[in-house]
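Hello forum,

I keep getting stuck at the same step: I have a sequence, I want structure tokens, and every attempt I make locally crashes halfway through. Rather than fight my setup again tonight, could one of you with a working pipeline run this one for me? It's a single chain of 163 residues.
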Amino acid sequence: MPTMTRCPGCKSQLRVPDGSVGRQVKCPTCGTQFVAVSEEEVATDPATARWFEDEPEEHQEQEYEERPRRVRRRDYEPHRGGLILALGIIGLVICAPLAIPAWIMGESDLKKIRAGIMDPEGEGLTQAGRILGIIGTILCLIGCVCGGLYTVLVIASLGVAPN
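Reply #2:
Ran it on my machine without issues. Output:
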């Protein structure tokens, strides 16, 4: 019958075969290697009992406060992600010619972000606006081609009309 044990790394409860108790095992969840100890042994051995206890809350808070925080560089050029996204949406929905500047500005800003010149926080907005600009530009071109063909057909049908 399998024996229950806990991983000292991730604290997940594991079943190990009886033959594995006292041997080195690997946790399938976190990959930590440890010596498998049955829960009955834990009750009698205080050294292994600490593995089964959760960390005290003050210890968890202390670790959280000690983590390094991301520092924003002040020498970044500010991103224009919101503007590019707005131009892309307006160009796609209302005024197709505005999709072209969204595409062009999005391309140049993404190059600056990847080069480390512009604030990388706006990369998602810039990318979305650029994509909308591309779609809006393509739809604008398709509309112009269809409108041109329609105009040619109307003019041709007027010139060939029977008297």
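The first strand starts at residue 3 and ends at 6. If your local run keeps crashing, start a new thread with the error log.
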